[in-house]
């Protein structure tokens, strides 16, 4: 299907020498193919966008022995048989090898322009001051400036190769360093150590890279993000989600209870994936390449509880919880649901609503911490997604939600509560935990049934009835 496109883009004498062309990938600016050229297995890259200045890339490629042909953005380069980092378990050894390759790239003596960090706007006053601080000519290096996982390859021998040099510029070395953490989930401590970055420098460069990316997507990419190349994922109750290249794109479906907080406020929360761009209709962040795992694994359980503790001790002020209002709304919506009303009497519904009115607003709470919203990335870090229902709430709400969803036995549940106390320093009151657990499960059942009337809630209902005695 790409034959005509390639033939129209490439000089005839070059096209005639191409064989066995195989489509690999479509990015924002280029198609990438695998092919044979003059009997050599090669990467063929053909531009589809005029957003990039190919003159700069030509200077870089002329320094690489693997380059066979390059003109006007059309690249033929010896094929490197490896995988992109998004498919790799990012061990410390691999992370350090990638960093070493980048540091070698930084030393390349190539005449390229300095990165224009104001190309998408002047930004905030703080941004302008920090850009000035980190733009001293004597500190700049040859920066790749686009180190997403798809632009770093590794083979079976552990050899690293960088690709796609359209955005190479003179920039501070910390620019690439921060991209590794923000776009690829490299270990922050490893990156800071290898690049000799202080805590203050990391914070300041984070401000630069965050605002630069946000402005870029606002101006250039937000309107073209969802197109025929964006693959729709499962449609949730309150969002439609897509993945395109290495981006996760979410179209908001708003109701009275969700998307009340800008997700940017969680940018410094470790279990959260930073938002690149957000407006009233859309959220764009890096797609999290995840690994399969078992919730029965005690190491995973501890990582999840540590992540919950990080959220609950995170310094942010959110709106007060609306759990009582939501339950009232769902109960009214379900007034004709036969099974629901057979399970739960009017007196029990009223008692749960009354109890939900007294939920304390003591910690930042996710409020939808089901198993689908917990991910293990390729760096073995736990990430939470879908924060659109977050609010202040009881410290027990997320814990009860998680333990009920996984249907943990009593011993595992107690172990989890003890871990939570260890990581937060908070005391645990079991009577209050079980009271909240009754509320949480009734809330979860009611919410689910409003979207799926056939939802089988028997396994959650038991958690309501077992804990009724703790309601006040």
N-end to C-end Cα span: 67 Å
Total number of helices? 16
Low-confidence stretches: none
Helix/strand class: alpha+beta
Helical coverage, percent range: 25-40%
Widest sheet, order of strands: 1-2-3-5-4
Major sheet: size, sense and barrel closure?
5 strands, antiparallel
Rg over alpha carbons = 26 Å
Strand content: 15-25%
Shape: elongated
InterPro entries: Kinase-like_dom_sf
Pfam families: Choline_kinase
GO biological process, one term: phosphatidylethanolamine biosynthetic process
Protein name: Choline kinase
Q: Would you kindly provide a written description of the structure presented here, covering whatever features stand out?
A:
This protein has 472 residues and is α+β, with helices and mostly antiparallel strands. 39% of the residues lie in helices and 18% in strands. The protein is built from 16 helices and 20 strands. The chain has helices at residues 3-9, 12-15, 54-61, 92-106, 125-133, 173-184, 188-194, 199-221, 298-312, 323-333, 338-343, 346-356, 395-406, 410-424, 430-451, 458-466; strands at 18-26, 30-37, 40-47, 67-71, 74-78, 83-84, 141-143, 152-154, 160-162, 169-171, 231-232, 239-244, 247-252, 275-278, 282-286, 290-291, 363-365, 374-377, 382-384, 391-393. The strands form six sheets. A five-stranded antiparallel beta sheet has the order 1-2-3-5-4, sandwiched between helices. The chain has a five-stranded antiparallel beta sheet with strand order 11-12-13-15-14. Strands 6-8-9 form a three-stranded antiparallel beta sheet, covered by helices on one side. A hairpin with a 5-residue loop joins strand 8 and strand 9 (160-162). Helix 10 packs across helix 15. The chain starts with a helix and ends in a 6-residue tail after the last helix. InterPro entries: Kinase-like_dom_sf. Pfam families: Choline_kinase (PF01633).
